[in-house]
Specification:
With about 500 residues, the chain is an alpha+beta fold. Among the domains are: about 170 residues, no CATH class; about 120 residues, no CATH class. It has 15 helices and 14 strands. Strands 1, 2, 3, 4, 5, 6, 7, 8, 9, 10, 11 and 14 form a twelve-stranded mixed beta sheet that branches. It has a two-stranded antiparallel ribbon with strand order 12-13. Strand 3 and strand 4 form a beta hairpin. Helix 3 packs across helix 4. It is globular and about 80 Å long. The two termini are about 20 Å apart.
Length: about 500
Amino acid sequence: MGHRGQGQPDSAPDQRARLARGTKKNDAPLLNALESLCAKAGQSCDRRNAARLTEHVLAQLACLGTHTVTGVLSTCGHQFRDWSADYRLYGRDRAVPEQLFEPVRQWLCDNQQGPVVVAMDDTCLRKTGRRVHGVKYMRDPLGPPFRVNFMRAQRFVQTSMACKGHDGQARMVPVDWVHAPVPAKPGPQADGEELKKHRAARVSAVGAQRIGHLRGWLDSHGARERTLWTVVDGSYTNGTVLKSLPKNTTLVGRIRADAKLYHLPVRQPDRGRRLVYGQQAPTPEQLRRDETVPWQHVDVFFGGKTREVRVKQLTPVRWRTAGQQHTLQVLVIAPTPYRLSKNGKLLYRQPAYLVCTDPEAEPAQIVQHYLWRWDIEVNHRDEKTILGVGDAQVRTPKAVQNVAGCAVAAYAMLLVAAARCHKENLDYDKLPAPRWRRKTSHRTTTMNLVQNLRHELWGRSIHFSGFDVTNGNNNKPKKGTFSPYSALFYSARYS
């Protein structure tokens, strides 16, 4: 998914000349795919709201400035109209992220075989207003390790589904987004109801609820027999999530190096309660240091190519945190050597300790699915830097959830539209790469998709004369010859 167009690409002058002649309707595959997804999402709402929702999705992606609601309206050309209906679109649940994510999930499930792999993580959107719903002081993840910094922010939980490619590569596409405000700590006089509400608002409890929601959606849309693989980090590898996993769901997560594990009982007593835990097993760190357990070599796709990773396996075991209903396996990933420069000294990363709720799963499958999880961090970066998720200045609970969620859903639709064009062999990557971009990426970046979408949106109506004329070897062109074509299609907050 998301690879460059097939066939021999045109040279840069030929592409500029073709763009100068304008873009025909059949030359907009990315736009057509996006409009098709928006049409499916708008089937469950009023016709006027569906048309306005499609405009907002396209404007959210093509916006050149700050991605506030007014910025989206200016991109739509509605800056001189009454804007109250556009704000009510979010504040009164006329546009909810769930209806936009529906066609994204459906396309991903219909066009892929095998298990459904999702990654889950939480992210924070910085805010300064004191009356904005869900804003709390939180630890700043970008602070230095020697000093804990705090920031005012909102917390959201995102779920991304893997769009699989060939040779084991995949791209994560957001399929769920929910606001998870940090709960206030109950006081010493709090009753049982307040404590129960506080536990239900913790991020692990919200994650468990979203896993169950996605499993229910798969069961109701013809994917009951497909296994749901959920890949998480250490904050979700706890009893709250593990003990509430639905059926036909496998979880892969990080585990502590000193976690206490137990073998299965060898034999049961003749009388009394049945044993659940047997002899104590080695901790993950002890397993890594045990020279009697051999390392296994598995091939996984990561960082643009297939690499060999060394792992150790311990199965079957049980963990009191996971409860007696789960029989687990533990994987230890050896530190991977790397160099900061070509002639630099050899350094080593920290080992990773993984736990999987399927004791019979292949180590290569577990490690590959876990490595795919890193792409959800790329999702968070693109959402905040390129699409401006969090720029909107809204305060009410519904608007906080819907404005940011619909922006993330627009990003998901863009990725699915690119995957759909790639599957149908439609050339959507028409803009020539800048001269400084000498390396060819193994997949199209989000910024490149946005730039091509802008070209398909505006290329038919904007015509420039002479913007594609090159100066040859003249290294001193005339001053003031700005190119509106480049300013529109290649503008980016972050290159």
